[in-house]
Amino acid sequence: MPQITPQTKGVFVIAATPFAPDGALDMASIDRMIDFYRDAGADGVTILGVMGEAPKLTPEESLSVIRATLTRAGNMPVIVGVSAPGLAAIRDLGLRAMDMGAAGVMVAPPGSLRTNEQIIGYYGHVVEALGPDVPLCLQDFPLVTGVTISPATLGAIFEAHPSVVMLKHEDWPGLSKITTLRKAEAAGRRRVSILCGNGGMFLPEEIRRGADGAMTGFAYPEMMVQVCRLSAAGDHDRAQDVFDAYLPLVRYEQQQGVGLAARKYTLARRGIIASDTQRKPGQALSSEAVAELDFLIRRQERRLAELG
C-alpha cells in the first residue's frame, strides 16, 4: 500500500461509515462505497473522520471498518483518522492501522490546547507515540476543534517533525493561510501536501492558492475530481463552471447539525450506501429538507447536462 508523502496530490474522499437501520455496521455498503469512489476517480479515501462518526464506534468496530476498507481499496491509499482524547488510544489505533496497510493517519488537536507552545508540544507527543516512520496528516479544523493554529505554528511543527507530511486544511476563512504556507516553502521551508476540506466550498480558490487537492466528503466526489484535474491542466474557467453547477448542494451540505444527514441521504439516494442511518445522537432530515435536497439535485443534473 502506498503511503502519503509531502508530494501527495488529488482527491481523498472522506468516507461515511454506513449503518443498517438497526445501527449495525453495514459492511456490504463499505465495499460498494469504496468501489464507487475508485470509479469516480478518487486518488484515495480517508476513514474514521468527523463524517465517519468515529466517536460512535467501539474500538473493535473501528478495526473492522479499517480492515474492510483496506481490503476493498487494494492499492488505493487509505488514511485513517485516529484522533482521540489520549495518546495511548492514538498510538494503539494508529499503529494497528499502519500494520494493516494504511497510507497514513490523521490527528486533530484536542480542544484543551490554548497556546502555540501547547499545540507544538502536543504534536511532538503524537509523533513520539506513533514513531517517526508513520506518515501523519495534521487536521486543522478550528470550527470543530476550537483550536486555531497559526501558519507560524504549523511551520514550527512541520520543521520539527518530518513525519508530518500533510495538512488537512479546514480553516475558514483560510485562503490566506494557504498562501502564507506556500510562500514559506518558497523561502526554504520543507514542503507539505495540503488537501482541503469544508465540503469543497472553496475548492477552486484553494487550488489556485496552492492547495494540492481535496479531502472532504461531498456526496458527488466526481465534482472534486473534475475541478482538480481541470485546474491542474490550467483550465480554471471550465473548472469553475463545473464547480458552480454543484455549488448549491455543496452549500446545503455545509449546514451545521444536518450536514451529515444531508450527505448520507444523497449517498443513499445514489445507491452508494443502503441506508442514510446515523448512530444516535444524530439529527434526521425533515420531510422539507428531503424535498429541498431532491430539488437541488434535479437542478444540478439539468445544469450538468447543459454543460455537457
Description of the molecule:
The protein has an eight-stranded parallel beta barrel with strand order 1-2-3-4-5-6-7-8, surrounded by five helices. It has twelve helices and eight strands. The longest helix is centred in the last third of the chain and has 21 residues, at 287-307. The protein has helices at residues 27-39, 59-73, 87-100, 116-130, 142-145, 151-160, 175-186, 203-209, 221-232, 236-253, 259-269, 287-307, and strands at 10-14, 44-47, 78-81, 104-107, 136-140, 164-169, 193-196, 213-214. 49% of the residues lie in helices and 11% in strands. The protein has a single domain (10-235), classed as Aldolase class I (TIM Barrel), CATH 3.20.20.70. This is Dihydrodipicolinate synthase family protein. Pyruvate binds at residue 215.
Specify the helix fraction band: 40-55%
CATH class: Alpha Beta
Can you tell me the residue ranges where pLDDT is under 50 for at least 5 consecutive residues?
A: none
Strand order of the largest sheet: 1-2-3-4-5-6-7-8
Q: Average pLDDT value? A: 96
Main β-sheet description = 8 strands, parallel, barrel
Task: Calculate Rg over CA atoms.
Answer: 18 Å
The shape, in one word, is globular
How would you name the oligomeric state of the polypeptide chains in this document?
Answer: single chain
Give the name of the CATH architecture: Alpha-Beta Barrel
Strand content: 5-15%
CATH topology name: TIM Barrel
CATH homology-level superfamily:
Aldolase class I
Strand runs, count: 8
**Helix- and strand-based class?**
alpha/beta
* Secondary-structure element pattern, one letter each: EHEHEHEHEHHEHEHEHHHH
| Count of alpha/pi helices | 12
Please report the distance between the alpha carbons of the first and last residues: 36 Å
What is the total number of structural domains? 1
Organism: Rhabdonatronobacter sediminivivens
Pfam families: DHDPS
Family: Belongs to the DapA family.
Keywords: Lyase
